[in-house]
Amino acid sequence: MDADGGRPIRLTAGIVAKSPRSWSPDGERILFESERDGDQEIYTIRPDGSGLTRLTDDPAADQSPVWSPDGSQVAFASSRDGNLELYVMQADGSRPIRLTDHPAADDNPAWSPDGRLLAFASSRDGHRQLYLLRLADRQLTRLTADSSRDQEPLWSPDGTRLAFQAVRGENYDIEVLELATRTRTRLTSDLEFDGQFGWAPDGARLAFISARGGTEAVFLIDADGGGLTRLTSGAALNPSWSRR
To answer: Has residue 156 got a pLDDT over 60?
Structure first.
Protein backbone atom coordinates (compact mmCIF):
# COMPACT_ATOMS: atom_id res chain seq x y z
CA MET A 1 0.00 0.00 0.00
CA ASP A 2 1.03 3.63 -0.21
CA ALA A 3 2.87 5.14 2.74
CA ASP A 4 -0.32 6.95 3.81
CA GLY A 5 -2.29 3.66 3.86
CA GLY A 6 -4.00 4.20 0.53
CA ARG A 7 -4.42 1.77 -2.37
CA PRO A 8 -3.81 -1.56 -0.60
CA ILE A 9 -3.12 -4.40 -3.05
CA ARG A 10 -3.37 -8.06 -2.15
CA LEU A 11 -0.24 -9.76 -3.47
CA THR A 12 -0.79 -13.40 -2.53
CA ALA A 13 -3.74 -15.69 -1.87
CA GLY A 14 -1.81 -18.47 -0.11
CA ILE A 15 -0.75 -18.45 3.53
CA VAL A 16 2.61 -16.75 3.97
CA ALA A 17 2.26 -15.86 7.66
CA LYS A 18 5.41 -15.07 9.64
CA SER A 19 7.79 -16.03 6.85
CA PRO A 20 10.57 -13.58 5.92
CA ARG A 21 9.47 -10.94 3.41
CA SER A 22 11.78 -8.28 2.03
CA TRP A 23 12.01 -5.69 -0.73
CA SER A 24 14.73 -6.02 -3.33
CA PRO A 25 17.34 -3.24 -3.03
CA ASP A 26 15.91 -1.54 -6.13
CA GLY A 27 12.34 -1.76 -4.78
CA GLU A 28 11.11 -3.71 -7.81
CA ARG A 29 10.35 -7.10 -6.21
CA ILE A 30 9.37 -8.68 -2.89
CA LEU A 31 11.07 -11.89 -1.75
CA PHE A 32 9.18 -14.44 0.35
CA GLU A 33 8.77 -18.14 1.11
CA SER A 34 5.56 -20.11 0.72
CA GLU A 35 4.12 -23.64 0.68
CA ARG A 36 1.62 -22.75 -2.05
CA ASP A 37 2.90 -25.55 -4.30
CA GLY A 38 2.97 -28.22 -1.63
CA ASP A 39 6.39 -27.68 -0.10
CA GLN A 40 8.42 -24.78 1.23
CA GLU A 41 9.84 -22.78 -1.69
CA ILE A 42 11.13 -19.27 -2.37
CA TYR A 43 9.33 -16.75 -4.59
CA THR A 44 9.40 -13.15 -5.72
CA ILE A 45 6.52 -10.92 -6.77
CA ARG A 46 6.20 -7.35 -8.01
CA PRO A 47 4.61 -4.74 -5.70
CA ASP A 48 1.58 -4.51 -8.00
CA GLY A 49 0.86 -8.24 -7.57
CA SER A 50 2.15 -9.29 -10.97
CA GLY A 51 5.15 -11.37 -11.97
CA LEU A 52 4.96 -14.12 -9.36
CA THR A 53 8.17 -16.12 -9.86
CA ARG A 54 9.17 -19.36 -8.16
CA LEU A 55 12.93 -19.29 -7.53
CA THR A 56 13.43 -22.74 -6.00
CA ASP A 57 11.98 -26.10 -6.99
CA ASP A 58 12.99 -28.91 -4.67
CA PRO A 59 10.95 -31.31 -2.49
CA ALA A 60 13.04 -30.30 0.53
CA ALA A 61 12.44 -27.12 2.53
CA ASP A 62 13.94 -23.91 1.11
CA GLN A 63 13.73 -21.07 3.62
CA SER A 64 15.13 -17.86 5.13
CA PRO A 65 15.82 -16.07 1.81
CA VAL A 66 17.75 -12.77 1.91
CA TRP A 67 18.80 -10.44 -0.90
CA SER A 68 22.43 -9.61 -1.47
CA PRO A 69 23.08 -5.87 -0.99
CA ASP A 70 23.24 -5.29 -4.76
CA GLY A 71 20.13 -7.41 -5.42
CA SER A 72 21.93 -9.78 -7.79
CA GLN A 73 21.77 -12.87 -5.56
CA VAL A 74 19.68 -14.52 -2.85
CA ALA A 75 21.15 -16.48 0.04
CA PHE A 76 18.92 -19.09 1.69
CA ALA A 77 18.89 -22.25 3.80
CA SER A 78 17.79 -25.60 2.42
CA SER A 79 17.55 -29.21 3.56
CA ARG A 80 17.84 -30.54 -0.02
CA ASP A 81 21.10 -32.35 0.79
CA GLY A 82 19.84 -34.00 3.98
CA ASN A 83 19.98 -31.21 6.55
CA LEU A 84 19.85 -27.42 6.56
CA GLU A 85 22.80 -25.87 4.75
CA LEU A 86 23.45 -22.43 3.29
CA TYR A 87 23.06 -21.81 -0.44
CA VAL A 88 23.27 -18.84 -2.75
CA MET A 89 21.55 -18.43 -6.13
CA GLN A 90 21.14 -15.74 -8.74
CA ALA A 91 18.19 -13.40 -8.23
CA ASP A 92 16.23 -15.26 -10.92
CA GLY A 93 16.73 -18.60 -9.12
CA SER A 94 19.44 -19.91 -11.43
CA ARG A 95 22.82 -21.40 -10.48
CA PRO A 96 22.21 -22.46 -6.86
CA ILE A 97 25.50 -23.08 -5.06
CA ARG A 98 25.94 -24.89 -1.76
CA LEU A 99 28.06 -22.83 0.65
CA THR A 100 28.26 -25.02 3.77
CA ASP A 101 28.60 -28.75 4.33
CA HIS A 102 28.18 -30.00 7.87
CA PRO A 103 25.94 -32.58 9.62
CA ALA A 104 24.57 -29.84 11.91
CA ALA A 105 21.98 -27.33 10.71
CA ASP A 106 23.18 -24.02 9.22
CA ASP A 107 20.54 -21.32 8.76
CA ASN A 108 19.58 -17.66 9.36
CA PRO A 109 21.92 -16.25 6.67
CA ALA A 110 22.57 -12.48 6.75
CA TRP A 111 24.63 -10.56 4.17
CA SER A 112 27.19 -8.02 5.31
CA PRO A 113 26.55 -4.52 3.87
CA ASP A 114 29.49 -4.90 1.46
CA GLY A 115 28.24 -8.30 0.22
CA ARG A 116 31.48 -10.10 1.08
CA LEU A 117 30.36 -12.03 4.18
CA LEU A 118 27.46 -14.08 5.43
CA ALA A 119 26.69 -14.30 9.13
CA PHE A 120 24.61 -17.32 10.10
CA ALA A 121 23.53 -19.56 12.98
CA SER A 122 24.73 -23.13 13.40
CA SER A 123 24.86 -25.87 16.03
CA ARG A 124 27.96 -27.44 14.43
CA ASP A 125 29.96 -27.16 17.67
CA GLY A 126 27.20 -28.74 19.75
CA HIS A 127 25.47 -25.51 20.69
CA ARG A 128 23.65 -22.95 18.54
CA GLN A 129 26.06 -20.08 17.92
CA LEU A 130 26.88 -17.44 15.29
CA TYR A 131 29.44 -17.88 12.53
CA LEU A 132 30.88 -15.81 9.71
CA LEU A 133 31.50 -17.12 6.19
CA ARG A 134 33.79 -15.20 3.84
CA LEU A 135 32.35 -15.84 0.40
CA ALA A 136 35.57 -15.35 -1.58
CA ASP A 137 37.34 -18.36 -0.07
CA ARG A 138 34.69 -19.96 2.21
CA GLN A 139 36.76 -19.16 5.31
CA LEU A 140 34.67 -19.86 8.41
CA THR A 141 34.92 -17.98 11.70
CA ARG A 142 33.02 -18.71 14.90
CA LEU A 143 31.71 -15.46 16.38
CA THR A 144 30.02 -16.44 19.64
CA ALA A 145 30.74 -19.02 22.33
CA ASP A 146 28.21 -18.61 25.10
CA SER A 147 25.71 -20.73 27.00
CA SER A 148 22.87 -18.94 25.20
CA ARG A 149 21.45 -20.14 21.88
CA ASP A 150 22.39 -17.40 19.44
CA GLN A 151 20.45 -16.90 16.22
CA GLU A 152 18.93 -14.41 13.73
CA PRO A 153 22.01 -12.23 13.13
CA LEU A 154 21.39 -8.75 11.67
CA TRP A 155 24.22 -6.48 10.50
CA SER A 156 24.47 -2.88 11.60
CA PRO A 157 24.37 -0.45 8.65
CA ASP A 158 28.13 0.19 8.90
CA GLY A 159 28.98 -3.52 9.04
CA THR A 160 30.85 -3.33 12.37
CA ARG A 161 28.27 -5.02 14.61
CA LEU A 162 25.70 -7.79 14.64
CA ALA A 163 22.45 -7.67 16.56
CA PHE A 164 21.10 -11.12 17.33
CA GLN A 165 18.61 -13.13 19.36
CA ALA A 166 20.09 -14.75 22.45
CA VAL A 167 17.91 -17.46 23.96
CA ARG A 168 18.44 -18.68 27.52
CA GLY A 169 15.94 -21.34 28.44
CA GLU A 170 12.61 -19.77 27.49
CA ASN A 171 13.92 -16.22 27.71
CA TYR A 172 14.42 -14.42 24.37
CA ASP A 173 16.67 -11.37 24.56
CA ILE A 174 18.55 -9.09 22.14
CA GLU A 175 22.32 -8.67 22.14
CA VAL A 176 24.83 -6.78 20.01
CA LEU A 177 28.25 -8.17 19.04
CA GLU A 178 31.13 -5.82 18.22
CA LEU A 179 32.93 -7.74 15.48
CA ALA A 180 36.37 -6.21 15.95
CA THR A 181 36.59 -7.08 19.65
CA ARG A 182 33.94 -9.86 19.93
CA THR A 183 32.39 -7.84 22.76
CA ARG A 184 28.78 -8.76 23.53
CA THR A 185 26.34 -6.17 24.87
CA ARG A 186 23.04 -7.46 26.24
CA LEU A 187 20.35 -4.93 25.37
CA THR A 188 17.38 -6.61 27.03
CA SER A 189 16.99 -8.84 30.06
CA ASP A 190 13.26 -8.83 30.67
CA LEU A 191 11.61 -12.18 31.44
CA GLU A 192 9.14 -11.62 28.60
CA PHE A 193 9.92 -12.04 24.89
CA ASP A 194 12.15 -9.41 23.24
CA GLY A 195 12.84 -9.86 19.52
CA GLN A 196 11.93 -8.94 15.92
CA PHE A 197 14.55 -6.18 15.92
CA GLY A 198 15.78 -3.79 13.25
CA TRP A 199 18.63 -1.27 13.12
CA ALA A 200 18.01 2.42 12.64
CA PRO A 201 19.69 3.70 9.44
CA ASP A 202 22.36 5.48 11.51
CA GLY A 203 23.05 2.39 13.65
CA ALA A 204 22.42 4.27 16.88
CA ARG A 205 19.22 2.47 17.92
CA LEU A 206 17.14 -0.62 17.33
CA ALA A 207 13.39 -1.01 17.11
CA PHE A 208 12.03 -4.27 18.48
CA ILE A 209 8.99 -6.09 19.82
CA SER A 210 8.63 -6.85 23.51
CA ALA A 211 5.90 -8.70 25.41
CA ARG A 212 6.75 -6.86 28.65
CA GLY A 213 3.59 -5.40 30.12
CA GLY A 214 1.47 -8.17 28.62
CA THR A 215 1.33 -6.85 25.04
CA GLU A 216 3.78 -7.37 22.17
CA ALA A 217 4.40 -3.67 21.55
CA VAL A 218 7.10 -1.73 19.66
CA PHE A 219 10.04 -0.35 21.65
CA LEU A 220 13.21 1.58 20.85
CA ILE A 221 16.55 1.03 22.54
CA ASP A 222 20.01 2.52 22.07
CA ALA A 223 22.66 0.20 20.64
CA ASP A 224 24.46 0.30 24.01
CA GLY A 225 21.34 -0.80 25.91
CA GLY A 226 20.21 2.61 27.17
CA GLY A 227 17.29 4.83 26.27
CA LEU A 228 14.51 2.23 26.33
CA THR A 229 11.32 3.82 24.96
CA ARG A 230 7.93 2.30 24.30
CA LEU A 231 6.35 3.47 21.03
CA THR A 232 3.00 1.66 20.85
CA SER A 233 0.37 0.77 23.42
CA GLY A 234 -1.25 -1.95 21.33
CA ALA A 235 0.08 -5.19 19.90
CA ALA A 236 2.37 -5.00 16.87
CA LEU A 237 4.77 -7.16 14.84
CA ASN A 238 7.91 -6.77 12.71
CA PRO A 239 8.86 -3.08 13.07
CA SER A 240 10.81 -1.69 10.11
CA TRP A 241 12.65 1.62 9.72
CA SER A 242 12.35 4.06 6.85
CA ARG A 243 15.66 4.55 5.04
CA ARG A 244 16.22 8.07 6.31
So the answer is: yes
